[in-house]
Amino acid sequence: MSLFNKAKGYFLGDSQGQAVSAPISSQDAPAPAARAPRVTPLRSRRPVDVAMEIHSLDPKSFEDSQELAAWFREGYPVIVNIASLSEADAKKMFYFMLGLKEGLNGHIKRITSKVFVLSPESVHLNDEDELTGDSDDLVQP
Fold first, then answer.
1. Which residues contact 82 (CB under 8 A, 6 or more apart)?
2. Strands ordered across the beta sheet of 78-81
3. How far is CA 124 from CA 1, 41, 60, 121, 131, in A?
4. 20 in a structural domain
5. How many domains, in total, are found in the chain?
6. Which CATH number fits the domain that encloses residue 83?
7. How far apart are CA 1 and CA 90, in angstroms?
8. Phi/psi of residue 81, each to 5°?
9. Sign of the alpha-carbon torsion through 113, 129, 99, 79
10. Where in the sequence is the domain holding 58, given as residue range(s)?
11. Model's pTM, two decimal places?
12. Sequential pLDDT tens for the chain (141 residues)
């Protein structure tokens, strides 16, 4: 076999079309691939057959949004009264609730001009229009 045929067989495969691999020394061996982290779907930790519990929150500042998010992530509906917040904090809280709704596929409904119900995907309230985040959603209808 000529040198050309040996090189051709080495790089392109042998004469039967089978790929030929070069011998790998222990120094040239690739490192084992790091195991990719396992991604699990986001779901409620609360079993579905448990009696429904509704939490209510009367935030005094925007920092109370962490408690709202914790309850909502667990799969509980939350009634939020933003009447005691300043106008700036009320807007921030409203848009935070819209972000939670979108991020966790939930629903948000207005009860009064300053009271909202944030509910998970599995809880439906009624057939009224859902809030979408338009600028007039926070203004009293």
1. 59, 89, 90, 93, 94, 114, 115, 116
2. 55-57, 78-81, 115-119, 107-112
3. 77, 21, 27, 7, 14
4. no
5. 1
6. 3.30.110.150
7. 83
8. -105, 110
9. positive
10. 49-141
11. 0.56
12. 577 777 777 767 655 545 555 555 555 555 555 666 666 555 555 555 555 788 888 999 899 889 999 998 888 899 999 999 999 999 999 999 999 999 888 889 898 889 999 988 887 777 555 565 555 555 543
Structure token digits, residue 27: 């120094």
Q: Dihedral sign, CA of 124, 127, 133, 136?
A: negative
Residue type, 34: A
CA distances from 85 to 59, 132, 141 (A): 7, 21, 19
